[in-house]
Design goal:
By secondary structure, the chain is of the alpha+beta class. It is built from 6 helices and 20 strands.
């Protein structure tokens, strides 16, 4: 039996709706949405969320549905923000009716309090944050969140509100917080806390600077969870530098006991090594830069390239997170040399040498 569906509608006066809606559909397909031609216009599905477009006189009618208010909020925000973007110099007025009128704050937003700070290694600081609903970050499908880094000119934190058009509005948009993505390193559901590890840089970016300044009692806004997950495989290869270490560590802790594979972790020196919980079949190797600048070596790609892969017939999964040039090299190796399909690898760039800190 299907549960309740939350629905909302908007009538939008678009002077040239065809190209705008087509661009929106094309953009959503890139984010794994399914699009088909309905009787009155295109219909999109992304998981359990649905959006339909049709014409009603001179206006475009958008109808969205989701199984919960958070999904409805995300559907309204996605439709409205992209239509405003793709409409160019003639942005339309968008107002939603139906469910969701009571949404004042984004449902995926919450304010957490810093209840602990400690150095894990000389360049890794852990913040422990407490809140009423940290359980939403349990599981590897909830691996990431976005942290709000408040503008330095703001004395009191600025929190997001939801406008009548479904898009986030700020009291001072010129001083709105920056968003930085981080891994939820660990959770203590009984205590209602989660841990986030930050790499501290000499040229601190916004996230690193926030972590260095944080003190018990501070309030930090977070949005999430974001995507994550780990594909089931017979053999894994993980590779990452300090920025990916929290994600790799959490994934290792969640692997089945009999998992086999190899892990390469690049850090500044032996002082940055930290204890990890891994299945006995996962071999961890630490790679030390020993005075060389982060992002200036080929340690990760060299190690990955030299690793013997299992014989055919075993399911392989490669996961890597690192600096941009290493990301490009490892991704090219996975796709062009090993011919791994997209479902068998994920290689991401966490930062780029030459930009400040975690920017």
């Amino acid at each position: 039996m299907q549960g309740r569906q939350y629905t909302a509608q908007a009538r939008i006066a678009l002077s040239n709706p065809g190209p705008v809606i087509a661009e929106f559909c094309e953009h959503m397909v890139e984010h794994n949405a399914e699009v088909r031609d309905g009787p009155d216009g295109p219909e999109l599905r992304l998981g359990a969320i649905r959006a339909r477009f049709s014409r009603e006189g001179e206006t475009t009618l958008v109808d969205v549905a989701a199984p919960d208010l958070e999904g409805l909020y995300l559907a309204r925000m996605s439709v409205a923000s992209h239509i405003l973007e793709f409409a160019g110099d003639d942005p339309p007025v968008i107002a939603w009716t139906g469910d969701g009128g009571e949404i004042v704050r984004p449902p995926n937003f919450q304010i957490l309090e810093v209840v602990g700070c400690r150095m894990v290694t000389p360049h890794m600081r852990r913040l422990t944050l407490a809140g009423e609903n940290v359980s939403r970050f349990a599981g590897l499908e909830a691996l990431h969140l976005n942290i709000m880094v408040q503008h330095p000119e703001i004395e009191e934190p600025q929190w997001p509100r939801v406008g009548t058009n479904g898009v986030i509005v700020w009291e001072r948009p010129d001083l709105r917080p920056l968003m930085r993505k981080y891994t939820v390193r660990a959770l203590d559901l009984a205590a209602g806390t989660l841990d986030i590890d930050f790499v501290l840089h000499d040229d601190a970016g916004p996230g690193s600077g926030l972590a260095a300044r944080a003190a018990v009692g501070d309030r930090i806004g977070v949005v999430g969870p974001g995507g994550g997950g780990l594909v089931a495989a017979d053999w894994y290869l993980f590779a990452g530098d300090e920025t990916a270490l929290p994600a790799i560590a959490r994934m290792l802790e969640n692997l089945p006991a009999g998992t086999r594979g190899k892990v390469f972790l690049e850090v500044a020196d032996a002082a940055e090594v930290q204890p990890l919980t891994t299945p006995s079949g996962m071999v961890v190797e630490w790679l030390f830069r020993d005075g060389r600048a982060a992002g200036s070596t080929t340690l990760l790609i060299d190690a990955v390239r030299a690793t013997p892969f299992p014989a055919e017939g075993e399911k392989i999964y490669l996961w890597a997170g690192c600096e941009f040039e290493a990301f490009r090299a490892i991704r090219a190796f996975a796709r062009q040399e090993k011919r791994l399909p997209n479902t068998d690898h994920l290689v991401v760039s966490y930062w780029r040498r030459g930009t400040a800190g975690d920017d």
